Amino acid sequence: MKKRLAFGLSVFISTVLLFSGCSSSTQETTSNESATETTESTESTQEETKEVEGTAAGQAHMEAAAAGAEVTVANGKGAGRDSLNFIVLTEPLTLEPGGLSSTDSNVRPIIVQVYETLVRESPTDRTVLQPLLCEGWEFNDEGTQVTFEIKQGVKFHDGTEMTADDVAYSLNRSINLPTNVDISDMMENAEVVDDTHVVLNLSYPYSPVVNILTNPGFSIVSQAYIEQCEADGTNFGRNPMGTGAYRFVSWTNGANIKFESFDEWHGGEVAIPNLTYTFIADTTTAAIALENGDGDLFYGVDSADLPRLRANPDVNVMSVQSSGFYFVALNTRVEALSDIRVRQAIAKAINRQEVIDGGQDGVGWTVECPITPGIFGYQEEFEATPQDIEGAKQLLADAGYADGLTLTMITPEASYYSRPAQVVQEQLRQIGIDCQLTIMERGAFDTDVSNREFELCYTWYGASYPDADNIVYKMFHSDFADGTGTTNIAGVKSEEADRIIEDARRSIDQDVRYELYGELSAINDENAWYIPILCSTNTICASAEVGGVAGNAGSYYYVADYTFEAE
Questions:
Q1: 29 bridge partner residues
Q2: Closest CA relative to residue 337, chosen from 389, 397, 405, 387
Q3: Predicted pLDDT at 103
């Protein structure tokens, strides 16, 4: 029998998560991360994670995040306004779907206004999929083909109509993009069936494949426009043209990008016709701009500014649990760290709750397995090696380091990295490890991690779609051990881990997959390749004048859903 997934019928995926004891997830520490460390909105409950005590301010933030993805209601003071100013921290390098910065969660709120995918995640529950440029989809009996019924009458911003040929071209283009290869390896190609249907061929059954297609890197583009840009030398990434609710107007370097509503958008008329994205790199300056009325939305708030913003009646702070988690990676290529006893000693030094309290203002949930809380595969009952200072010292002595050991650790300069890393540094000191912490500019950090030029690093990884395979395949599989980039940075080479990952990603039995991810969690804990620490929240701050805003783990903030009019 064929399995049909259509509008609202991604209940199949939601049901899978429900019966696995997992719910939805989200991203940030009241920070916002690149989805290449990878990106991702949904309800989350404190029952699914270990609730922290934390500070009073931190606890208030956690309770708000656990309440789920509520939607703001405009206070009516902005009624009649026709322009919205959205503040983000980072200026994009490009707005090309699948381009380097399209995987950045600070860029995703911009790119999704212009480009659309066949399917999107529900703005308030990422486990529910909604047709966007399709009417529905259907798997074949073997699970190796997905046929999409293409929505008719959709127009690109240049007035041309989107065709099945454009859809197949876009999918084939996306499958081969460097930024997508680690999530598209099961996709072989897309073919036009007829004017209203396109089939995506898979090399093996893969349950979450439709979830992958919600990623902006799989946006539908105009084949004619891209070919024209290539022919005349136009920078496609600086001159975006899609099917979305907003069309590109201008880009002022270092200042802003402006859009206007697309009158022929297939979704109908939007409430706010003019949209500007303003770049303010400093988080506190950006927060003050929002409070002063110089912005309507702000994505990228720092935890230090949250108590003030939450107390401001003119600001709504919308938080959901993050789509990623923070961890310490141990580079097994380093001589000392090639010894499992040293790695196990480091694992025994860690007290996750202390990291949350001391480095996150109490904002965060402890994470003990290498999978984001809330997504499918997360092991809610898993317990990692607990802190054991004396046991850690003994392991170091057994490894020949009775007199101590000096290691270096790197982390990005943002406070949601550097402050927790300092707590980890102190915990390692307690077992005799002199951890020399280097806090780095983000670009330099990414370069060193990509080139494996580190011993320890405190970093983050997220799920661009709500399935454990999206994380563990890239973190653990030996195929990525000897390359560069942000995959398998610990240098894991384990036949057992490879077998588990391969079996889990090819199985269509969700119970089997869940058990396999439990096995992988146990293997990681034993070998201490990665030490999961915490998961925090993904937050967007909105003026009380804006209605329709919800927190979202994947940074999918659709301005077409927003209004200045009170209900």
A1: none
A2: 405
A3: 63
Phi/psi-derived region of residue 501, left when phi > 0, alpha when psi is between -120 and 50, beta in every other case: alpha
Alpha helices per DSSP H over 67-194: 108-114, 164-175, 181-184
The CB density around residue 480, as the number of other CB atoms within 10 Å, is 19
What tokens were used for 397?
A: 């002595």
Task: At 449, list the tokens.
Answer: 């991690």
Q: Say how many C-beta atoms besides its own lie within 10 A of residue 439's C-beta.
A: 18
Taken as a whole, the chain contains a residue count of: 567
| pLDDT greater than 60 at residue 43 | no
pLDDT > 70 in the chain, percent = 87
Q: Is 162 helix (H, G, I), strand (E, B) or coil?
A: coil
- Per-residue pLDDT tens for 457-467? 999 998 888 89
Give the neighbor-by-neighbor strand order of the sheet with 197-202: 3-6, 134-139, 145-150, 197-202, 187-194
Give Rg (Cα) of the chain: 23
- Strands 456-462 and 315-321, by their bridges, are unpaired
Please state the pTM of the whole predicted model. 0.76
Please answer whether residues 214 and 117 qualify as being in contact, where contact means their C-beta atoms are separated by less than 8 angstroms: yes
Cα–Cα distance, 198 to 195 (Å, whole number): 8
Beta-carbon neighbour count of residue 159 at 10 Å?
8
User: Residue written as tokens 């997360």?
Assistant: 378
Contact 297, 557 (CB under 8 A): yes
In whole angstroms, how far apart are CA 146 and each of 121, 200, 309, 400, 534? 18, 5, 45, 56, 36
- Cβ neighbourhood burial of 495 (10 Å; 0-12, 13-18, 19+): exposed
Q: Give the amino acid at 242.
A: G
**249-257, long-range: CB < 8 A, 24+ apart:** 253/91, 254/91, 254/279, 255/279, 257/92, 257/95, 257/110
Tens digit of each residue's pLDDT (9 = 90 or more) over 525-549: 999 999 999 998 889 999 999 999 9
The 3-state DSSP composition of the chain as helix, strand, coil percent (nearest 5) reads: 35, 25, 45
Phi-psi category of 496—alpha, beta or left, where left has phi over 0 and alpha has psi -120 to 50? alpha
| DSSP track, 20-68 | TT----B--SSS--BTT---------GGGSB-----HHHHHHHHHHHT-
What is the rounded CA–CA span in Å between residue 373 and residue 533? 12
* Encoded tokens for 212: 């992958």
